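From the methods appendix. Each design record in this collection lists the tokenized structure first, followed by the designed amino acid sequence. Records were kept in a plain field format so they could be parsed without special tools. The example shown here is representative of the layout used throughout.

RECORD:
FOLD TOKENS (533 positions):
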């Protein structure tokens, strides 16, 4: 097999009547697809995209929560050689416009009821040719938007492309003021499927519960694609829900589930059923207390969108130090970089660097961003992860902190620089720095420290204007939960903001800040049941 379509087609041809996907919505009836039925639907959606002029290499935006249509679109793009650009459905209107412009997308498959408004359809720069709306069964409207049911034209034959050709993209937050588009080749997706399935030991008899978002690497590349590789069945939920996780897991007799620390912590606060069918979970860290609580072995895994697959992975037959993740996964080499040397020796702590093959075990590159590509790799070709790690005596690796200024809010990455760009553009703001503050429900939340250009102006009014600008231009999880005003930002060295000092201030409820103004409406950010994302 050379690429992900080879795998997808082979599984469907082998056992067309075997269950591939079960959709478990929170409202309405469940739906199921056999492998053969799913392939038929993918080919028809691919035919409809081709009828709309989509050709190999064209970029198609996919802007949706978990649903069967998400997977049908992603595989249909792969089938005809288009590049599926996966977007966070929480994205604001301004962000969607940037994504469309940056990628030169020809169209968008979006979903009714999402917060952001997709770019207009029409003629001219940065406009899309067409728009398809999931959950929209209406006929063509004035904006030429049609329902997803219209994407069932005559099936088309698959495109045969170089495995290293671009296959999909995901945007990732980092130190830049705009998210970067991570390009996965068609071979990259196959690698993720193969490494994860073999590394965690998925079986064809497994039933994989996927409550994590498909627009993240863990949900798609570490869960759905490995299930396809193993020949396992997939049970898809709209999103993670602490109250709905166990009922579906029990009813469907699920045997494997992926987790991030946010979801496992939410379930840890809930009772566990007396009996269940899980034989394995994966999580971002190995915690013995969690294994005892859930009565299921848990393997650690760590990676990034750029790595495609987990670069650090636990093994059932090789326990790791409590709090560690695992060891370097097959196909990668790793080293710790600090001010003294480059090694992976016990006791070392520093930034983790990963060596792999571009376009196969590592992402192909950042789309149209040569500066970012150059900065991402060392002179000898190692990828700079930006995460600080520690090596234990047994060789297992433990995450320490993010070396880059990325805030983890409910499992979502928030770039400090991206939020700062929006805040700095508000009239009356002289300077700003955004840091993370620990939060029991969300892990971290962003806090903005603002220096007003007029010390005598009303900080209350400026706070409202900052909040309004952030709400209009950023996804809700990126909006600062609190805005604090300072006469000046603390500095260290030569004009470098002392972010450590700001983090201490953010954590201190009784800070010395001149004014502290919360954005309010906390329920806007918290999941509906307090344990959902």
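DESIGN:
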């Amino acid at each position: 097999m050379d690429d992900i379509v080879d795998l997808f087609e082979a599984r469907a041809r082998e056992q067309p009547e075997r269950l591939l996907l079960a959709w478990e919505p929170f409202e309405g009836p469940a739906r199921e697809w056999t492998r053969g039925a799913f392939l038929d639907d993918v080919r028809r959606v691919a035919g409809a995209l081709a009828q709309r002029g989509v050709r190999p290499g064209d970029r198609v935006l996919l802007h949706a929560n978990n649903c069967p249509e998400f997977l049908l679109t992603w595989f249909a793009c792969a089938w005809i050689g288009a590049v599926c650009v996966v977007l966070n459905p929480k994205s604001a209107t301004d962000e969607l416009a940037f994504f469309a412009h940056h990628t030169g997308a020809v169209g968008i498959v979006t979903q009714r009821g999402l917060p952001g408004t997709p770019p207009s359809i029409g003629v001219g720069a940065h406009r899309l040719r067409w728009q398809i709306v999931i959950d929209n069964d209406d006929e063509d409207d004035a904006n030429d938007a049609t329902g997803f049911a219209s994407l069932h034209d005559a099936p088309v034959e698959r495109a045969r492309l170089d495995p290293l050709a671009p296959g999909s993209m995901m945007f990732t937050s980092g130190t830049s003021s705009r998210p970067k588009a991570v390009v996965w080749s068609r071979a990259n997706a196959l690698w993720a499927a193969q490494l994860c399935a073999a590394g965690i030991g998925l079986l064809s008899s497994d039933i994989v519960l996927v409550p994590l978002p498909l627009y993240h690497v863990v949900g798609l590349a570490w869960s759905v694609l490995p299930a396809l590789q193993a020949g396992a069945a997939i049970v898809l939920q709209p999103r993670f829900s602490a109250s709905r996780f166990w009922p579906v897991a029990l009813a469907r007799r699920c045997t494997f589930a992926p987790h991030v620390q946010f979801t496992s912590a939410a379930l840890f606060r809930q009772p566990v059923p007396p009996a269940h069918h899980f034989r394995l979970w994966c999580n971002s860290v190995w915690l013995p207390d969690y294994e005892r609580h859930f009565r299921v072995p848990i393997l650690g895994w760590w990676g990034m969108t750029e790595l495609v697959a987990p670069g650090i992975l636990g093994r059932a037959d090789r326990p790791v130090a409590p709090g560690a993740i695992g060891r370097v996964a097959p196909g990668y080499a790793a080293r710790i970089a600090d001010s003294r040397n480059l090694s992976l020796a016990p006791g070392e702590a520093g930034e983790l660097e990963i060596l792999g093959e571009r376009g196969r075990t590592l992402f192909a590159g950042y789309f149209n961003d040569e500066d970012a590509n150059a900065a991402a790799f060392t002179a000898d070709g190692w990828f700079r992860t930006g995460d600080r790690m520690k090596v234990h005596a047994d060789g297992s690796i433990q995450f320490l902190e993010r070396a880059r200024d990325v805030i983890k809010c409910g499992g979502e990455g928030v770039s400090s620089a991206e939020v700062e760009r929006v805040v700095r553009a508000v009239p009356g703001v002289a300077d700003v720095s955004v840091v993370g503050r620990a939060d029991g429900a969300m892990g971290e939340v962003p806090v903005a420290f603002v220096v007003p250009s007029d010390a005598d102006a009303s900080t209350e009014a400026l706070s409202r204007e900052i909040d309004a600008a952030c709400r209009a231009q950023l996804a809700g999880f990126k909006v600062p939960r609190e805005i604090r005003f300072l006469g000046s930002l603390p500095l260290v060295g030569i004009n470098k903001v002392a972010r450590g000092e700001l983090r201490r201030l953010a954590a201190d409820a009784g800070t010395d800040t001149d004014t502290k103004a919360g954005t309010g409406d906390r329920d806007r950010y918290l999941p509906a049941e307090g344990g959902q994302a």
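APPENDIX NOTE: Residues 409-524 form a domain with the GMP Synthetase; Chain A, domain 3 fold (CATH 3.30.300.30).
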